[in-house]
Amino acid sequence: MKFSNVSEIPLTDIDEENRLTDFSMDGCPEKLTDSVKVIGIRNPISICPSENGYAIVSGHKRFQATPRAGLTQIPAFIVAELDDATRLVINLNENFGHRQYSDIEKGGILNKFIQAGVSNETIIAEYMPLLELERSKKMFQDLSDVKLLSHKMQILLHRAGVPVKTFKTFYKWNSLAEAENLFSILKPGVNKWRDLLELVDEVAARENTTQGDILSREEFQKVLTASELPAPQRYDQIHKTLHSLRYPVLSDMRKQVARTLDEMELDDKTKLRYQDTFESNELKLELKFQSEKELSQQVEKIFKALQSGSVEKLVKVFRDIG
User: Fold this and answer.
1) Are 94 and 38 in a shared domain?
2) Can you give the pTM of this predicted structure?
């Protein structure tokens, strides 16, 4: 592809609505605008003729930063008129190796190739490697199906860096409104997205209902609207409730243990250790002390617990495992 010499092009001659090769969901960073204010555009953008002046082949962020920096022209290489597929390929090749795309962005790029009339086979064989993707029909389908998600959900997934292996579960949901509300409030990290989605899917399957119906329940909505709680605490409460719904027997056993420990009234420095999955019925008491008096106080409370029968109740919970 031959480029002409660099020309100073008025910004008004460039069709800013033609976003075919704008793959980023992040927009123009402030640092780039600040840089352009100081040193201008050092690396020209690439443009080609279009119906409405010129279309950008590569350099959307630089173009967006230019008017924000108070400039009215931008240096550009002008290439001959190109079809959509060629524009996409040029942009990908220019950015290959130094531009990292989220899985949501990759799905958007694959869909642009589809819209440009490129066959699925060609996209898989020739262009998926430019996105550092394996030549896989399954991966192609999973990524291209991002078009099924709302723009709001795509933004949430992109910003959290959620991989396609996690978010593809949304494709089978009948509604994403509740999920959009949940994740926009909680703003969890990648692993927490995965944990919540797995639990919601499992609870929905267990109760033979939809994921949206699960999340719309009062116990979840109450937590989400509790503005006095920070997001991490709201996440913990929602995760705990979902876990209880998914594993009701395990949840009930944990409640029994908690109640029995309350009855035992052990010293704060006395800790009961056990597997909270109840895969083992072994119990351990851990005593921490720095004086004979501290040890005596803990032993005295343990003795009272033995006399009250609360220790026997605790042992019974674990004895009944299985």
Assistant:
1) yes
2) 0.79
In total, the chain counts a number of residues equal to: 322
The answer to the question of residue 129 being in a domain is yes
pLDDT digits (tens, 9 = 90+) for 25-68: 988 889 999 999 999 888 899 999 998 899 999 999 999 999 99
Tokens standing for 285? 């008491």
pLDDT at 5 over 80: no
- With a cut of 70, say whether residue 3 has pLDDT above it: no
Fill in the amino acid letter for 202: E
Among 168, 190, 170, 167, CA closest to 178: 170
Across the range 296-310, mean pLDDT stands at 91
Q: Is the Cα dihedral 250, 255, 258, 264 positive or negative?
A: negative
Residue ending a domain, among 64, 98, 132, is 98
Q: Is the dihedral of CA 72, 1, 88, 39 positive or negative?
A: negative
pLDDT at 9: 94
In this prediction, residue 281 carries a pLDDT of 82
Dihedral-angle region of residue 150 (phi above 0 means left; psi in -120 to 50 means alpha; beta otherwise):
beta
Beta carbons of 239 and 195 less than 8 angstroms apart: yes
Tell me if 256 is assigned to some domain: no
Residues 6+ apart with CB under 8 A from 13: 53, 54
**Using one digit for the tens of pLDDT, what is the confidence trace for 195-221?**
999 999 999 999 999 999 999 999 999
What's the domain range around 130?
100-148
Let me know whether 81 and 125 are in one domain: no
Last residue of a domain, one of 187, 215, 246: 246
**Domain tally, the chain:** 4
The DSSP line for 172-200 is G-S--HHHHHHHHHH---HHHHHHHHHHH
